[in-house]
Amino acid sequence: MTELSALAGTDSGALKGYNFAFLDEFTKREIRRKILKAVAIPGYQVPFGSREMPLAKGWGTGGIQITLSIIGRSDVLKVIDQGSDESVNAVNIRNLVSRMTGVETTSDTGSATIIQTRHRIPEEALTEDQIMVFQVPFPEPLRTIEPSEQVTRRMHAEQDYSSMWLHLYEDIVKHGKITIGARYPCLVNGRHLMDPSPIPRWDVPRLHRSPVLHLFCAGREKRIYAVPPHTPVEPLEFEDYKFETEDFSGKVCERCGSSDTFLDEIIDDATGDSRYLCSDTSFCEKRQRGCA
Amino acid sequence: MTPAPALEVDNLTKIYGSRCQDCIENTGPDHGSNVCPVCGSVVACADITFDVMPGEILGIVGESGSGKSTIVRCLHFDMEPTGGAAYLHCSGDENIFLLNSQRKRAVRNQHLGMVYQNPRMGLRLDVSSGGNIAEKLLAAGWRNVGNIRDRGRELLKRTEIPLERMDEAPRNFSGGMQQRVQIAKALANDPDVLLLDELTTGLDVSVQARILDLIKEIRRSTDAAMILITHDLGVIKLLSERTIVLKDGRIVEMGLTDQILEDPQHEYTQLLVNSVL
Predict the structure, then answer these.
(1) B201 forms bridges with which residues in the sheet?
(2) What number is the ipTM of this complex?
């Protein structure tokens, strides 16, 4: 602890002895170059040299590398995990970035400039001054149907997505509907098939022509991809079996009374009853205070 | 005016190995081998030139290793030819071998149908029969599940697969049924050219007869040009109007099937005709 405390306390608030934002400048530059390429080809997975992070793989090492590469001293950071600012993963990532940069953090969606997320897009409308950073476990939407990377790359190159369509067809034949919950495959800019990370179907339509820059990064799989502002993002659907979001009709959030947000179902162990709460905790609090 | 051929193949050549200048000269029926003595390359087929008219069945016979399958696999883009050209009347006057892979896929999905000897090659055995047919339709841009299923039902009915087994995987089917599902899949997009590679080999005689009847029915009801690869002269006699005889990767005889069977000119063809039991 003595060494750590000796490192603390530069005037910017960042931990002394480390480069600003933890990563060295060459790494940040490489990641920013790869982001530019990803933005230039919406939905295309750009390979990059993923670094070891002080975080276990699978806990957001991709997202954190993007955040650390693009963050500046004037940025305001919000980190959410499943919609919550207070989960262990979100708190740890926020603390890491905050110690390594000294930037301000917030739980208020409106005042954040960078929002790193796992599994959700905030309910509040986002603006073009904000950047969404997604933590991605599986960047390849075709991986479930094709194990070979060589083959999936060829499929993307030739825009050969018929096996994904077949997968959806078989789903409909077997179950009467498409059963994909999260990670719903989407066509970006009419060209590349993309895994939107494990966001619920609820959030998929909110990627479509959104004013925000969305950056996706998988640390373990070493891939970066992007949905630039105002880019069309269309979930795959049939003419007679349309894409559908989760249905919460007749249910409201127990805390804020909202009926137009994504709700988490919480089952009471004792009684077996279901309760519903907003997944986006910051938005729920705002509603409770009457601000949103 | 005679109608234009559905498919024209011009000097198709496929060579495996390092290749030298003398490969083609040193191989072929005259040399009794398709292995080049100079460099050891295998000349699977060379100088293959023929055409097929719409609605016609062209038979290709030859012993195993004579290059029959190589020809249809090249035409179906399963392998790249070493040289030569092929023109599909329905897709313009471009050499289809020179198209980029995306356009090759489009040609294959819209204009070609393929039936392999082994259904394992042409079907996804774990996907339902309906799904196997759907795959071709989806690749060609169909996006309505109802229409896809209607078309699937129509094809399965035509190939005599019980409709209640539409959503069952072909893995559970007998060999003959699998072959009929494969034919249904190949017919999904009303192909202009249907490639049939040893489609009755390995099936018992009664099942063979039903498959051959099905091919006859397809000839009556569609305008598809068919290339029928077989080593069975009986099948050729029954189905095809014109026949090509292959030996060591070369065409040794080409003509009307009756003529070839009744009055074979080439030594090898004579041997082939005489060795029928």
Answers:
(1) none
(2) 0.86
